Amino acid sequence: MINTRIDLNLFQVFITIYNEGNLTRASEALHLTQPAVSHSLARLRAAFDDPLFVRRGTRMEPTSLARNIIDDVRYSIATLQSTLQPQSVYDYANSTRTFQLCLRDNTEAACLPELMAFLEKNAPGVRIVSQRVERKRIESLLTSGKLDFAMDVFIPFSDTIRHQKFKQDRFVVVARKGHPLLDDGLGTDTYLASKHILVSTRAEGTGFEDFEFSRMGLTRQIALRCQHYFVACQAVQNTDYLLTMPESYALLLNRRLSNEIHRLPIGIAPIDIYLYWHNEIEKDAANCWLREILLDS
Questions:
Q1: Which pLDDT score is estimated for 3?
Q2: 147, 276 in Cβ contact below 8 A?
Q3: Are 169 and 178 in contact (CB under 8 A)?
């Protein structure tokens, strides 16, 4: 039977051990000695009648019970903190906080240059870590606190993940200047008869545009599948391949290349990009501050 009279400070220790996966790193994050963290963990284990964490090598792996309660514990602590400090203000000018973002190359280009210029001037101690994460891992990393924000297409996450539209972009076609088939413009027949480049981090599977084409009974030939739009644009410059990509990123990447940008002759919906965050940081002053900056960029 769980002891309901528990020191709330123990739950912060629980969250930190869960996040860090290591007692030494947890003690450093909490600014406590390792024996003090071990003692707190012992009290939690007694209260829950469960080991909560099991040592495997250098890591402390959560038990089934720990995994089951972590989201509720995080949410409850965050709610209590926001209730006790409803008017808290984030001192960004003196902050040395590191924010973890999940971005892809096009969303990096859309927000990082302007964001970093703002931070250098107004919050010089704030650091940004941008990383690419598999979409299936984004929710768990937002939930665990290992990610602060993610930017991506619409993903049907659970109700614990909040989102807001960041931008909308239409698809265009990039082709080399002097492409022999485009003297009279780019029509549907020419587009479908040409060879194409698809940018994807996956080795197989359809891209967004191909999924939309398939709904119309249309297919195209993919000659190259690569991971980065910049490389794809360079390949376009040296071949007769066509590249379909978001317009704003196409304009940015092809400024110094001799490529031309054409209207996509097949009507597909524009792509929406969203900013995602966990609802437990909804009222966190630091995250509110950065969220507003990102959405305004």
A1: 53
A2: no
A3: no
Instruction: Check residue 40 and give its pLDDT.
Output: 93
Is the pLDDT assigned to residue 78 strictly greater than 90? no
Residues 6+ apart with CB under 8 A from 282: 162, 288
Distance CA 113, CA 296 (A): 13
| Distance from C-alpha of 99 to C-alpha of 171, rounded to nearest angstrom | 30
Q: Which helix (H) or strand (E) element contains residue 92? A: none
Residue 295 tokens read as 């959405």
- Backbone φ and ψ for 50, nearest 5 degrees, come out as -155, 145
Beta carbons of 277 and 161 less than 8 angstroms apart: yes
Quick check: 111 and 248 in contact, CB under 8 A?
A: no
Find the helix or strand (DSSP H, E) in which 45 lies: helix 34-48
pLDDT tens profile 112-157? 999 999 999 999 999 999 999 999 999 999 998 889 999 999 999 9
Burial 209-234 (b: 16+ CB within 10 A, else e): bbebbeeeeeebeeebbbeebbebbb
pLDDT at residue 82 tops 80:
no
- Model confidence over 161-189: pLDDT tens digits? 999 999 999 999 999 999 999 988 899 99
Q: Does the reported pTM lie above 0.85? A: no
Tell me if 241 sits within 8 A of 223, measured CB to CB: yes
Residue 142 neighbours by CB distance under 10 Å: 26
Domains, the chain: 8-83 (1.10.10.10), 95-168+273-296 (3.40.190.10), 171-269 (3.40.190.10)
Nearest-angstrom CA–CA distance, 181 and 109: 31
